[in-house]
Design brief:
Layout (H helix, E strand, L loop, with lengths): L5 H13 L6 E3 L3 E4 L2 H12 L4 H15 L9 E7 L5 E6 L21 H5 L10 H12 L4 H14 L1 E2 L2 H9 L1 H7 L19 E2 L2 H13 L2 H4 L1 H14 L5 H6 L3 E3 L2 E5 L2 E5 L6 H14 L10 H21 L10 H4 L2 H7 L11 H4 L12 E7 L5 E7 L57 E5 L2 E6 L6 H14 L5 H6 L3 E2 L7 E4 L5 H10 L3 E4 L6 E5 L5 E5 L8 E4 L1
Parallel strand pairs: 15-16
Antiparallel strand pairs: 1-18, 2-10, 2-19, 3-4, 3-11, 4-7, 5-6, 8-9, 9-12, 10-11, 12-13, 13-17, 14-15, 17-18
The chain binds glycine (GLY).
Length: 563
């Protein structure tokens, strides 16, 4: 079920097996970590120019839409978790919504079977984009410098061109046929050209520069109304899409009260529904505390077994109970209640594995794509923001808006296409996440901020679909329970399990032969994975400086830029 990033596998196996150390740096004033070095530099420059972390986040979001088009976006969505220098918390939901014409059976064929091509590719897969409204709201509430200055770097990049890294050239080549298929008869430049891309090729995107210019001049109206909206609507009308002018005009991102929990004298601030991330993370941490994770050794079979058993139960809850709180009853506070969790985890045995089928019958997990991106930013005033943003799949629906130069998301695939029945992966989804007009699809994105003694301790998050939650969980446990330094905590090999399928995915470097055999004896099905997650972790030192740790072991283009 996990897509292997083939172009990365060999490099990663080499890196892990050679155990090459990566070096984190310390910054006095501020730091920006993103999946693309150009976007990190843009954010850092905004900080140096007097912008705060929130200004930098906006500039980064738009820069990623140009430099990292597989996940950076103007026509996707995401979530942001915020801690201001004053110690206030907030979270912003700019998740896409189902168009008004969407309906529960829209991806079923005449035999009532799910047609996954419809929810994953092309115009019907597209949710109403939330990114631009989200960035406008973020700026209205927290921005310090002029909106126009935040769009300028991305416009310049799109106009002057971005030189492709080796990773980005290969990624575009990998998706070349899919992009061509979804854009027949259209000019797909700059994403597909006559020849395959090589490192150093320059992508100019004048159409996207114009879109960004309209957003710069007109704010949300530069996207949801006027020329850009018309380009999206023409794209829909010509190709059987269902997003209307009213869908675009009515889209609103939402400020939500973040989920806050305690973990061994740390405060965890994370994303509430419609992301499952915060709920699942707090549940997992509660289980880790209950079973005294801090007394186990990292990488031991007890460590892995316990985490997997916790994850089995938490992902079963996720699939059964979580969805858009504005459309269905989501029992968030019950799910993170300590008494409930004590009971929920009480049947974990350290000497035997539970079978996932015995954990809970009925509704189960919806598989999500890995292709999302996360960035973490902290500034000289002490503001911090963790943003996870996505088109869902790599290059989303693969549809490039003609005359717009940007990809549309395929976020509709995060709904359960057919509640209670298996999808293409042999999995089924819960009723709480069924398609309804205007509803937000369930997410796993887990932008998170951690405090210790009232001070900022960590800003973190990751892409990776359902593995986002477990990657964030492991990073926190590595730092707090295993007392790893920030670099070590990010570099440490990861593993993942999610109830169904009843398997454990491990990065190759994790298991010794002895641990592998012990886990096998307990009944765990182990599958090797080339990489899990891509962390962007800012940690603080006791003297108030920031340590920036990008996940360069797993993604060479990621970068911390600070001063
Ligand atoms: N599309 C991935 C997620 O929202 O979790």
């Amino acid at each position: 079920m996990f897509k292997i990033l083939s172009s990365l596998s060999l490099a990663l196996l080499f890196v892990f097996s050679c155990n090459v150390p990566t070096k984190s740096k310390t910054y006095q004033n501020g730091v920006v970590i993103t999946a693309h070095y150009l976007a990190s530099d843009v954010g850092n420059q905004i900080l140096k120019d007097g912008g705060n972390a929130f200004d930098a986040a906006i500039a980064v979001q738009f820069a990623l839409a140009v430099a990292y088009p597989r996940a950076g976006n103007v026509a996707g969505g995401g979530f942001a978790v915020i801690r201001t220098a004053k110690g206030d918390y907030n979270s912003l939901d700019f998740r896409e919504t189902a168009p008004k014409a969407a309906f529960e059976q829209m991806y079923l064929d005449e035999n009532g079977e799910v047609n996954p091509d419809l929810s994953q590719k092309g115009h019907l897969a597209v949710g109403v984009p939330g990114t631009v409204d989200g960035m406008v709201k973020l700026h209205q509430k927290y921005g310090k410098i002029d909106w126009k200055a935040l769009l300028a770097p991305a416009i310049k990049m799109a106009r002057n061109g971005v030189a492709l890294s080796w990773l980005e050239a290969n990624k575009l080549n990998d998706y070349r046929e899919q992009i061509k298929n979804q854009n027949r008869g259209k000019d797909t430049n700059p994403y597909v050209r006559e020849n395959l891309f090589i490192e150093g090729d320059t992508l100019h995107n004048i159409a996207l520069a114009r879109v960004l210019l309209r957003i710069k001049e007109n704010g949300r109206n530069g996207f949801y109304e006027g020329e850009t909206a018309n380009l999206i609507l023409t794209e829909m009308e010509k190709n059987g899409g269902i997003i209307t002018a009213e869908d675009l005009q009515d889209y609103q991102s939402i400020w939500r009260k973040p989920l806050i929990g305690e973990y061994r004298e740390h405060k965890i601030i994370s994303m509430p529904p419609p992301s499952s991330g915060g709920v699942a993370l707090l549940q997992l941490l509660s289980g880790a505390e209950q079973y005294k994770m801090n007394e186990l050794a990292f990488g031991s079979y007890e460590h892995i077994h316990l985490m997997v058993e916790l994850e089995r139960r938490v992902y079963a809850d996720r699939a059964t109970w979580l969805g858009d709180p504005d459309c269905c009853k989501v029992p968030t506070s019950d799910l993170i209640d300590n008494e409930y969790l004590k009971d929920r985890f009480s049947d974990i045995s350290m000497t035997a594995k539970t079978n996932s089928q015995d954990v809970k019958a009925g509704c189960v997990e919806v598989i999500e794509s890995f292709e999302t991106t996360h960035f973490s930013i902290a500034d000289s005033e002490g503001n911090a923001i963790a943003v996870t943003t996505t088109l869902n799949g790599n290059y989303g629906s693969k549809v490039v808006v003609e005359g717009g130069g940007f990809f549309l998301n395929n976020e509709m695939d995060d709904f359960s296409s057919k509640p209670g029945f298996p999808n293409q992966f042999g999995l089924v989804g819960g009723e709480a996440n069924a398609i309804e007009p205007g509803k937000r699809m369930l997410s796993s994105m887990t932008p998170t901020i951690v405090e210790k003694n009232g001070n900022l301790f960590m800003v973190l998050g990751s892409p990776g679909g359902s593995t986002i939650i477990t990657s964030v969980f492991q990073n926190i446990v590595n730092a707090i329970d295993f007392k790893m330094q920030p670099q070590e905590a990010v570099d440490a090999p990861r593993f993942h399990s999610q109830w169904l399928p009843d398997e454990v995915y491990v990065e190759k470097a994790l298991l010794s032969k002895e641990v592998f055999e012990k886990l096998n004896l307990l009944g765990h099905q182990i599958k090797k994975q080339s990489k899990i997650g891509m962390m962007a972790n800012i940690s603080t030192t006791t003297n108030g400086t920031y340590i920036g740790v990008p996940d360069t072991l797993r993604h060479a283009d990621s970068k911390a830029a600070g001063y």
